[in-house]
Amino acid sequence: MEFINAIGRRKAAVARVYVAAGSGKITINKRDIAAYFPSSILQYIVRQPLATLDAVEKYDIKINLKGGGFKGQSEAARLAIARALVKINEEDKPALRAEGFLTRDSRVVERKKPGRPKARKRFQFSKR
Question: What is the 3-state secondary structure of 64-121?
């Protein structure tokens, strides 16, 4: 059983994905996807690249997730799965690219500035 690996990042989350031919089992941090992401929306996000290629039950996927929150983790996993599928079959790239699954979303939280309560918010101005 040969594993194809890929990496995906989103916000502070990093996903390492290992894809092998199989029956469609997705394991995240040694737990089933339903146990790791109870929300069906997040499960849907992770499975999106597979659904696009009608390959939901073709591959077994192992994912190691670190950092970030559940939204960032699910989107990092989606990017990593899409990259792994392109490694397996280069002809799938245009379909995944059209859906936007191969684009790294570079938006991250803006840093807090000194003399301010948050990144852009200012303390209340008092004229007198």
Answer: EEECCCHHHHHHHHHHHHHHHHHHHCHHHHHHHHHHCCCCCCCCCCCCCCCCCCCCCC
* pLDDT tens, position by position, 18-37: 999 999 999 999 999 999 99
Residue 89, C-beta contacts closer than 8 angstroms, at least 6 positions apart: none
Taking CA 95 as the corner, what is the angle to CA 1 and CA 34, rounded to the nearest 5 degrees?
A: 55
User: What domains, with CATH codes, occur in the chain?
Assistant: 2-97 (3.30.230.10)
Task: Indicate the pTM of the whole model.
Answer: 0.91
